[in-house]
């Protein structure tokens, strides 16, 4: 067969109409519904689908049988035929029965938002851990829907919805799939143990950990590459990188830290995915500092920030020390920059500006290490001099008569534990006290 515009090397391409249901509840925030549909377009294109048209249906609630209602299904069928489409992608999650009914009526492949995201993850996973997590999420999603997956699994050409575990595994009985899920969970448990050991070793060695989190396509991987010269895949796509990447970075003080890039978040991130990727996302839980990277140029940045905060809350990482990094300021107007949220600790940067990266390194150092303190200690106080070296990094030291002068970048935790014993020798505190006394005398 000679390939047409609809085939690549004999394989049928996915040509899709995208469908979104806007219920009465969602109508209160139409901007959010529109953003979700635009995200679906990006997700479909990321999965290699040719998007032909989008369609919305306003309805009080979802139809239990047809999801969008029988009349709208007929309208969709006519559009699919007119556009020579072979796939319908829905922006919401469908039940097995809805998939079965829509497939029988429309005679095309039916994919929902969750399955589309899982499919992209199946394409992106490269490490053993990533592949295990994706297959676990896909099987957990498909198990209760097997009765509705008939034609999807046997439709010619493969494409979206069939990547990952593959047809042979999915067409077997539920007992086999449950056994496979148990097997994958056991494998993942071993991976988690291995990752935990690595984290404990880093902690014992006093290595600080920083986690990059943020909405997908906010520029986390670019930032990691610019800060550490990491060899990571960067593309203007949703979920361009999936597997977590850890690289070392040197702070201005010379101390080395580890930065980890985590998987990007997205609106309505499938629960099966959050559960399966918990081991990866928990890097944020163990981090000494979370850098929340935000795409400043996105019109929906406030909503995207809310989604990230919600996922961090689910993971129990919301109490960690955080620094919000408003990235891509080079794509913003002055007015847009002024509208950026200024709550909590934040920094406005472009990942391609060396000056901005320098400010970010300084901010990370300040957050992790605390402030720089100066101590004047009598030379005979050997125990206190030893303590100085334990509470942080000594940047400079010199003899001044019978005393030693130290400039120290203090570690906040260590200083709180025992550094208070040096309070009487804190030069800056002494100067402030002297300045205060002089002010009172005047």
UniProtKB/TrEMBL annotation:
<dbReference type="InterPro" id="IPR027417">
    <property type="entry name" value="P-loop_NTPase"/>
</dbReference>
<dbReference type="Pfam" id="PF16360">
    <property type="entry name" value="GTP-bdg_M"/>
</dbReference>
<comment type="similarity">
    <text>Belongs to the TRAFAC class OBG-HflX-like GTPase superfamily. HflX GTPase family.</text>
</comment>
<dbReference type="Pfam" id="PF13167">
    <property type="entry name" value="GTP-bdg_N"/>
</dbReference>
<keyword id="KW-0547">Nucleotide-binding</keyword>
<dbReference type="InterPro" id="IPR042108">
    <property type="entry name" value="GTPase_HflX_N_sf"/>
</dbReference>
<dbReference type="Pfam" id="PF01926">
    <property type="entry name" value="MMR_HSR1"/>
</dbReference>
<dbReference type="InterPro" id="IPR030394">
    <property type="entry name" value="G_HFLX_dom"/>
</dbReference>
<keyword id="KW-0963">Cytoplasm</keyword>
<dbReference type="InterPro" id="IPR025121">
    <property type="entry name" value="GTPase_HflX_N"/>
</dbReference>
<dbReference type="InterPro" id="IPR016496">
    <property type="entry name" value="GTPase_HflX"/>
</dbReference>
<dbReference type="InterPro" id="IPR032305">
    <property type="entry name" value="GTP-bd_M"/>
</dbReference>
<protein>
    <recommendedName>
        <fullName>GTPase HflX</fullName>
    </recommendedName>
</protein>
<keyword id="KW-0342">GTP-binding</keyword>
<comment type="subunit">
    <text>Monomer. Associates with the 50S ribosomal subunit.</text>
</comment>
<keyword id="KW-0460">Magnesium</keyword>
<dbReference type="InterPro" id="IPR006073">
    <property type="entry name" value="GTP-bd"/>
</dbReference>
<comment type="function">
    <text>GTPase that associates with the 50S ribosomal subunit and may have a role during protein synthesis or ribosome biogenesis.</text>
</comment>
<keyword id="KW-0479">Metal-binding</keyword>
<feature type="domain" description="Hflx-type G">
    <location>
        <begin position="208"/>
        <end position="372"/>
    </location>
</feature>
